[in-house]
Amino acid sequence: MAKDNKNLNKKPKMNPYWIYGVIIAVFISIQLFSGGFSASTGTQTTPAQFLDFLRKGDVEKVEIVNKREARVYITNEAEEQEVHRKSKPKSMFPSVSPTPNYKFEFGDLQNFEKQMQEIISENNLNTVITYETEHNVWGDFLLTLLPFILIIGVWIFIMRRMSAGGGGGAGGQIFNIGKSKAKLFDEKTDTKTSFKDVAGLEGAKEEVQEIVDFLKYPEKYTSLGGKIPKGALLVGPPGTGKTLLAKAVAGEAQVPFFSLSGSDFVEMFVGVGASRVRDLFKQAKEKSPSIIFIDEIDAIGRARGKSNFSGSNDERENTLNQLLTEMDGFGTNTNVIVLAATNRADVLDKALMRAGRFDRQIYVDLPDVRERKEIFEVHLRPLKKEETLDVDFLAKQTPGFSGADIANVCNEAALIAARKGKKAVNKQDFLDAVDRIIGGLEKKNKIITPEEKKAIAFHEAGHATVSWMLEHAAPLVKVTIVPRGRSLGAAWYLPEERLIVRPEQMLDEMCAALGGRAAEQVIFGKISTGALSDLEKVTKQARAMVTIYGLSQKVGNLTYYDSSGQSEYGFTKPYSEQTAELIDKEISDIIEEQYDRAVKLLEENKDKLTQLAEVLLDKEVIFKDNLEKIFGKRPFDSKSEEGTAEQTKNGKEVPAANQTSIDEEE
Prior knowledge:
single chain; alpha/beta
């Protein structure tokens, strides 16, 4: 019954086009009933025929309109004649004025008047001649108003587009400029993500589970006097699933979810950022309990007063001040929780990080081997894969990969399988996908001279030989001299996933990285530019040993690493010139010591190095089995697994792999 009452109470909405239609109908009616359409009635005739009617005495009155048209009214007796019956006025609309029988247009008025006067005088007629000047008042009025109506209509159209935030271009949102750009995900239709869709991240999921419980059952916590955290900050490397985790929180809590980026607050107009923050929290309070998710919050949350010499950051700081006030100011936010994500927590303002605002910092780390297996299982669901595919093997293949990297591997493997015309994705497709992502695209048609190819083969064989001889070097998987990306050759290793690294492990890795250049020195007696990536890697490692981890006896237990990230803005180094010289010398000594060690190892195994290089020149790709045939079993290789390669990826070194390469000259 209530539903029927609701339907009865619903009134039809008035469409503005009906109003326009009524106005037009009124104007038409006025024209009709005022005789405005009389000009359109009357049978069309000619001046000669009219003069003939005039001579016969059939014309009662002639009305000359605007000196160009004649309207003829005949007598009642003439209307009964056969020749004039068709001229009787027939109109479907009533008219208050008499209707003419005939009408026609003439040329010169004086000649026409002279002809009529002569006929009237000759035949002694009583025909009346009248003159009228007609004005279409309403038509003239409408023509006068038409330009103004067009201008007003265009103006209303533009204003509606502007106020609706559409129209595209810079002026499209001029009246909506202070409104929040947050996208609202409705809990019933949009937020379908749950914790089941988030593989791995077990620790992070446990942290945010309490937020979900509070939004579902707030009385459980408030009854004991507790307060739920105002906000949670998700921190971690790119691609680890911070945004996905926030969506899962909204999906699990079944509450409205406002999502936007930190850069959405920034605008060229002063005060817009603060206005958008106010509008965002106003909307969130109206729909409370709700969640606000700000991605890349470092766009507005950077520390204030740093590097602000020109005052150009005032707008960003005003936005941050408003955000701080909304999160924990005099105005309290009822059941509004703020989630934020960033991979640069070190540059955020301390006021933003204090208790009462972002109470919790949840670190979303790169997944370990078990979590990588779970992530693979999620991304493998939509793929047509072989039933014998070993997911554990894939997880071990990709150490250091983030969730986004694993998704990319699965997609790339499917593309590779489709390119080869396969019906299902198999193990080799995934291996090729990993090689493609880390090393780049194969370039088998690259022009390389035999001398260069030989140098590349010995270079890569040097890496393989030294890493085979050292205990703490990563186990080798394969070596190739097929150009891939910008590298001319590569050696693939499976690095051990360590939480702490000891000096001897770092030194062994540096020695293995220098094995390529050492092999060139031992075999050819000269070196080349091909060890660029190797030198870059070992220099970074040696500098980290000395200046960050305090692993140098000469420099001592000191670190010049600033975890807050504020040292970037300094103009001076945190050590003296003498210390700088000592650091430089210590870095050089460490690298040269490992280079000499690699040369010595290769000189002792020169024949095996040459044999390995010849096999590599012949096959272009060799695997662990080929090394075992030449060198025998590796004595400390109990934990050896097949693995992948390491390369500088997106400007950051990935610990997943260890790819040493001969780089092209630029």
